[in-house]
Amino acid sequence: MKVTVTGARGKVGRAAVQALQRAGHQVTATDLGPAVHERELPEEARYLQADLTDAAAAAFVVRDADAVVHAAAIPDPLANPPHVVFGNNLMATFNVLEGAVRQGVTRFVNISSETVPGFFFPERPCLPVYAPVDEDHPTFPQDPYALSKLFGEQLMDAAVRRSDIRCISLRPSWVQHEGNYERNLGPQVRDHSVIGAGLWSYIDVYDLADAIVLACESRLPGHEVFYIASPDNAGGHDFAAVLRAHYGQAIELRPLTRTDSSGIDCSKAHRLLGWTPKRSWRDYLDADGRTLPGG
């Protein structure tokens, strides 16, 4: 297929470009920055510079595409004013999706977020109703980032009602790569009293990229939402024990498939996408949360 990847210079977008190319797809990469001659992206990828908050630019980058992977976004609500985060993320998603619908693109992969339920950047305390969290968990976001991602999913719902496009929204957990495992997850590995915002969940960027490829190739109808997280938690802790130690009975504990379970249930992605993660923090860190030699 011809696949356009937005946000192609970001952590997720770059991995998606590489995975799609390995799978044999022809990729057009797009991002805000100008083209450079250094090998930021694989040489086989065509690169287009575009500000996706501009509707004409968004329509331009998806022309002739069979599928679109929309990974472009301001990645959290902390480093920009709220109106900038919300406006950028929502309008970029609207414009890219609108362009895709109008130009007859048949598949759209929307990179949403695990923050959609609302317990990551709340101004008032907010806990999951139950854990592990799955796609049926209610959503009550407070911050502009999570709101923009929830509204993005609703845009997908509207698109499949009015056109023949098929949409998949992926909600990745905290995305890690070989360069940031120790900084981000090391403290949780060393000390179970360090609480991760996603109930100690995470996802390796290359496992996420595999899920993106499967989503592009999927023939599922309508719009489906999938959580994407590693099956284990950061640190390999006894999930039930640490959940009770930190939250008592405030969060309902649902059945676990393993003792060191993630705080996110990805069984829907396994069942409907055929996605199976292959990587763990253990491939990068030792038991003390330090980078393994050669890692």
UniProtKB/TrEMBL annotation:
<dbReference type="InterPro" id="IPR050177">
    <property type="entry name" value="Lipid_A_modif_metabolic_enz"/>
</dbReference>
<feature type="domain" description="NAD-dependent epimerase/dehydratase">
    <location>
        <begin position="3"/>
        <end position="219"/>
    </location>
</feature>
<dbReference type="Pfam" id="PF01370">
    <property type="entry name" value="Epimerase"/>
</dbReference>
<dbReference type="InterPro" id="IPR001509">
    <property type="entry name" value="Epimerase_deHydtase"/>
</dbReference>
<dbReference type="InterPro" id="IPR036291">
    <property type="entry name" value="NAD(P)-bd_dom_sf"/>
</dbReference>
<protein>
    <submittedName>
        <fullName>Nucleoside-diphosphate-sugar epimerase</fullName>
    </submittedName>
</protein>
